[in-house]
Amino acid sequence: MTPTRQLLLLAALLLGLSSCKHNATTTPQDAFSIDISPKKKEYHLGDTLQISIRHPRFEGSVQQTSYQIHQQPVTTLGDKIVLENLLLGKQFLSVSVQTNDGKQYTVKKPLLILAQHAPKLLSYRILNEYPHNKEAYTQGLEFIGDTLVESTGQYKQSSIRKWNPFTGEIYQNVPLQPIYFGEGSTVFRGKILQLTWRENIGFVYDQQLKVLKTFAYGKSKEGWGLCHNGTDKLYKSDGTEKIWLLHPETFAEIDSLQLCTDKSLYTYANELEFANGKIYANTFLKDGIMIINPENGAIEGVVDVRGLKDKVEKTPDVDVLNGIAYHPIRHTFFITGKNWSKIFEVVFLPND
Q1: Which letter, b or e, does each residue of 294-311 get, where b requires 16 or more Cβ atoms within 10 Å of its Cβ?
Q2: Quick count: other Cβ atoms within 10 Å of Cβ 318?
Q3: Looking at the whole model, is its pTM more than 0.85?
Q4: 167, 163, 160: which is closest to 139 by C-alpha?
Q5: Which DSSP letter does residue 60 get?
Q6: Which residue intervals of 147-241 are DSSP H helices?
Q7: pLDDT digits (tens, 9 = 90+) for 63-88
Q8: Which strands make up the sheet holding 33-37, listed edge to edge?
Q9: Which of 24, 287, 290, 327 gives 281 a disulfide partner, CB atoms 3.0 to 4.6 angstroms apart?
Q10: Checking DSSP bridges between strand 147-152 and strand 159-163, what pairing results, if any?
């Protein structure tokens, strides 16, 4: 073999090896890309987007077979998709494509989906005021009949208690171990659940406030608020833009909502209450209550509750608004705060 032929053979072998290595490491994301029109940083529920697939490394046609966002099928109109009946927030558009050789690929592209409409603004009217233990650092509040289940926080001061706001009678008050910082609570399927802040543990009590078992969190790092829809869905906030859905039996985190207005993502949903098909969330460090669509995370309303804190006793420990409980017979909300001397019975009113 002449030197020239040897060089040509070596070059061919090297090119072949290079080609094999390149093909072995090529991923669908390398081979395809998704173009969206109009091209924007964020989209809104209800928008229609035109989708095209670029595939410079494949000859011939590419057929787009299906579209999904958060594992949910997306409404299609030819080469367009409609953003409807979807979870909001930071999502991925997944497009399944088929090349002319019959191979299937899945390509993904991130997109931010915001709420379609701006939240409505509401105010409140006070119906009644009742005494509240000003040493209670309120973290969770929920009614069983006329009895309030209240969980409180702070290390060495946390508790779970049952009391009557109309008479002031305290039925039970069980302290947590000093190593736990108590957080939100809810009454679900005859059991009482309570979160802790950074200890990555939740407690399950019977109606006599005896601990039956515990559960761990998951991807979330903290426990803040807790509520449920009355049947099979438990919701947990952690201070981020997410509200987690918990398994109704194991309490494991199985999915999440992301809180959005028509402008941006929102964080700091604190104590939670479920009423009239919506999640009501105290906003940490704000005198406001978010009204959240539990189906997609849209913040549909904001209640301005400024002025309530001005009506409580001014003590060194008085802290932020936290604690909202709905009384289903009276159709009113009971609102308090951390170390507040009062609990207020209110109704929410739309702003004219």
Answers
A1: bebbbbbbbbebeebbee
A2: 15
A3: yes
A4: 160
A5: S
A6: none
A7: 767 889 998 889 888 888 999 999 99
A8: 33-37, 48-54, 80-82, 75-77
A9: 290
A10: antiparallel
